[in-house]
Amino acid sequence: MMDELKGLLRYAFQTGNELTFAVSAPGSVGMETCFVNLVSPGDKVVVCINGVFGQRMAENVRRCGGTPVIVEDRWGDPVDPAKVEEAFKAHPDAVILAFVHAETSTGALSDAASLAAIARRFGALTIMDCVTSLGGVPVLLDEWGIDAAYSGSQKCLSCTPGLSPVSFSVAAVERIKARKVPCPSWFQDLGLVLGYWSGAKRTYHHTAPVNPLYGLHESLVMLAEEGLENAWQRHRDNHLRLRSGLEALGLSFVVRENARLPQLNTVWVPDGVDEAAVRTRLLQEFGIEIGAGLGALAGRVWRIGLMGHSSRQANITLCLAALESLLHG
Ligand SMILES: Cc1ncc(COP(=O)(O)O)c(C=O)c1O
């Protein structure tokens, strides 16, 4: 079953990476697994921040003893490749580029292919957060040349939370093997975890969360049965349905059209509307939970998820009717 799971994850990530498995913990630990294995004290890492999760990446670099070189973009904008290029020109000794493909705090999708190409040109590896993108929009690790990626089981894979699919390229594995300082985390040390996840003999490392792993296996089977391209198309079609309904209600999107995540729709709260009261009534009266703004966008936006199994027409119709009755009823 573990081998099947690895194969299904390779399909979801569109990669041939041997080192592809699910970390026994949520997405934040997948993130840490990438940083504690790839960053050593003194390493410079270019970190793109255009929302909450980029900030968390920078914090990971600091805690690994590295120095983050911050590239900032406005919350709601995708990462600007020109700024990343400038950062590498100013810091040619940076060894890694880290960015969030799909910023869940804002709904912005960044151009992973262009960002990874810049890192490659400067001889750096790439760590990509695809917690919210995997299964909802194209995630093409091999085509884009991503060296380390982590995701989450609970977003577009629609599984229970608590597992983090990860994948590492050959170059990333070489860097991990060449570490001079041991990985500071025993639990996340890939050299140790792999004794359990690969090889002819499976050696006990920690007690695996077997039941959630079966759940993830099933959700990946469902994704494969639907077909990745069909899943991406479904997310896109449903986003367009929701978009036209939201715009008909007079709501406008935070993210510009060509960088919008179909699975995470962020709209400005209209002036004079008590945003928390609307979310509470949506939940209590209609059984719909939408997200509040985070960080810089707290209190100013609503984030409407259409991820995985929840991306379906019936949910959109109900959500739009409920919002209409609360805003204009
Ligand atoms: C983009 C992104 N990265 C990382 C995380 C952290 O994942 P988890 O909450 O599963 O630890 C999230 C969670 O929402 C996320 O959206």
Structural class assignment? alpha/beta
**Global outline:** globular
What is the CA–CA distance across the termini?
52 Å
Bound molecules: pyridoxal-5'-phosphate
Global mean pLDDT: 96
What is the number of helical segments per DSSP (H or I, 4+ residues)? 12
Description:
This protein is of the alpha/beta class. 43% of the residues lie in helices and 16% in strands. The strands form three sheets. Strands 1-9-8-7-4-2-3 form a seven-stranded mixed β-sheet, sandwiched between helices. A three-stranded antiparallel β-sheet has the order 10-12-11, covered by helices on one side. A two-stranded antiparallel sheet has the order 5-6. Helix 4 packs parallel to helix 5 (112-121) and helix 10 (228-248) runs parallel beside helix 12. The model has no long low-confidence stretch (mean pLDDT 96).
Please provide a brief summary of the model.
By secondary structure, this protein is α/β, with parallel strands linked by helices. The protein has helices spanning 2-13, 27-38, 52-63, 81-90, 112-121, 141-144, 170-177, 190-197, 210-226, 228-248, 275-286, 313-328, and strands at residues 19-23, 44-49, 67-72, 96-100, 102-103, 108-109, 125-129, 148-150, 164-168, 264-268, 291-292, 301-305. A 7-stranded mixed sheet has the order 1-9-8-7-4-2-3, with helices on both faces. A 3-stranded antiparallel sheet has the order 10-12-11, covered by helices on one side.
